[in-house]
Every structure is written in C-alpha cells, then in structure tokens.
Amino acid sequence: MPPTTSALNVSRFLREHIRTVPDWPSTGVQFRDITPLLQDPQVFRVLADAFVHRYMAPGLRPDVVAGLDARGFIIGAVVAYALNVGFVPIRKKGKLPFTTVEETYELEYGNASVEIHTDAVTRGQRVLLIDDLVATGGTMLAGIKLLERLGAEVTECAAIVDLPELGGSGKVRASGHSLFTLVDFEGH
C-alpha cells in the first residue's frame, strides 16, 4: 500500500530534523543522528505519535514493546507507555542483572551480543520490536531470535530510520518479518 500524503509529510518533517554527521565514526560514513528529533518537544511528539497511532490499530496493537539497546529504549518506552503495555529492554551483553538468554550477531569488524531476561516475555505474547534505525540488520535480527526463543510472536519490527543501502531492512523482511520505518535514507 503506498504511503498517504499525511505519512509522506510526517516522513519529510522528521527527515528535516535528523542531523547527518559526515565521516563519523569513521571516514566515509554518513551518520544519521536522531538526537535532534528528541530535543524539540514538537518534533518528539510527532515522532512518538507516528508510531503510537500506527500501533493503536487492533491488528497491529502489541501486548508488549521491546526496545533495542540503547536508542530503541527511548522511543520504545514512550510507545509502550502511550499504548498502556509493558516495555522490555534488549541490552548489550553483561548489562542485565537477572538470568538471561543471549544472541550473538556479526558486525562489520567482529561480533556483538545482546541479551534479554528469561522472564521478559511470555509464550504467545505479541511483541513490537523497535530501534532507532536499521543499518545492517544484525541487532534487529538478534532481537527477533531472542524474543522468538522465549516463545513470543514478533508482530512487527519498527525503526525511525531505514538505511536500505546497508541491506538490513531487506534481511529483516527476508526473515519473514514485517518492518515499518518512518524515514528512508536510500541513496543519500
């Protein structure tokens, strides 16, 4: 289904507030900084409302929102609060104090791991998995695996920004999961 004019206007508005930092963290990288979206209360509200309104729909409404470390916590917690559902953090390895399950994924140079508490979700719970952006897809795919290992159903993955040239959104969709993003930086 093509995006509506309203969705395109929201996307354009949010895009105007995402800062591009050239050559960070290394030469040739165009870093998409979402912190300006959070600093202005009007922009932050538009951002949060775009997700909240989508996930209020009965077919998309989750039982719980899971956020990926660390910027996924910001928007994920706000969305969970507005939907009156619980929030579950998926953290970098070694940050959670209780019994966890772990998933390792590949980075450009090496590996990383994320963890979730073993009691974070229950079998059959409908989970929205959210992060700030999708680049190579490793973190999001690891989050999906963790949630599914615990018996939850990942109903949709969501992010503010999609960087499709890095292949992550394609990998998430190829895994059989729906992905919703607000701003696409393809070719930029």
Structural features, described:
The chain has 188 residues and is an alpha/beta fold. The protein has one domain: 3-Layer(aba) Sandwich (Rossmann fold). 34% of the residues lie in helices and 32% in strands. It contains six helices and nine strands. Helix 1 packs antiparallel against helix 3 and helix 3 packs across helix 4. The model has no long low-confidence stretch (mean pLDDT 94). Pfam families: Pribosyltran. It is an enzyme of class 2 (transferase). Its EC number is 2.4.2.7.
Layout: helices, strands, pairs:
Layout: H1 5-15, E1 19-22, E2 30-33, H2 35-39, H3 41-55, E3 64-68, H4 71-83, E4 86-92, E5 100-107, E6 110-117, E7 126-134, H5 138-149, E8 153-162, H6 168-174, E9 179-184
Parallel strand pairs: 3-4, 3-7, 7-8, 8-9
Antiparallel strand pairs: 1-2, 4-6, 5-6
Regions with pLDDT < 50 over 5+ consecutive residues? none
Number of strands: 9
Number of helices: 6
| SSE order, one letter for each helix or strand | HEEHHEHEEEEHEHE
CATH topology: Rossmann fold
CATH class: Alpha Beta
Instruction: Please tell me how large the radius of gyration is.
Output: 16 Å
Name the shape in a single word.
Answer: globular
| CATH architecture classification | 3-Layer(aba) Sandwich
- The average pLDDT is 94
The structural domain count equals 1
Largest sheet: 7 strands, mixed
Report the oligomer. single chain
Alpha-carbon distance between the two ends:
24 Å
Structural class: alpha/beta
Strand content: 25-35%
Neighbour order of strands in the largest sheet: 5-6-4-3-7-8-9
Share in helix: 25-40%
